[in-house]
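Researcher: I'm preparing a figure for a lab meeting and need a structural model of a single chain. I don't have an experimental structure, so a prediction will have to do for now. The sequence is pasted below. Please return the structure as tokens so I can convert it later.
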Amino acid sequence: MRPATHRTALALAALTLLLAGCGTEAGNEGGGGDTVSPSPSSSPSSASPSSSPSPECAPGGELDAGDNGSTVCLAVGDTVRVSLDGTRSRPWEPVAVEGGGLEAANSGIVLLPGDASAAYEAVSAGRTELSSQRPLCATGTGRVSCKGVQEWRVTVLVT
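Model: Understood. Here is the structure written out token by token.
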């Protein structure tokens, strides 16, 4: 192999390894959440509210990153808590609320940088979308960067 061809092959191999590492971090800063899960390819189920949860509607309570794309049901008076474990270099944005039926409640204290925590009480019948996002790639000086985001979205139906 000629020297120029050898350098090109090494450069391509290094670039491939560098890009493959975009979704992970070298080193854990606490808070977990260093793995990247793909966003669901379809929108969350649009189940209609009913008095008992259907297979498309799980009972609410505690939500985390693994609940992305799901639909949960609450009765008026129930509380739902959101706990998204992030890292300092891949922080979750504060949980956004769109719709009606939920009212913010005390979620406690977020102890680790990059985490997002929220709590809501079901106050009236309605449909609410809870959402957040964080960078796919770790941010910081000397790190690979990308413009991708990991999205998290859960539909809450209050009956």
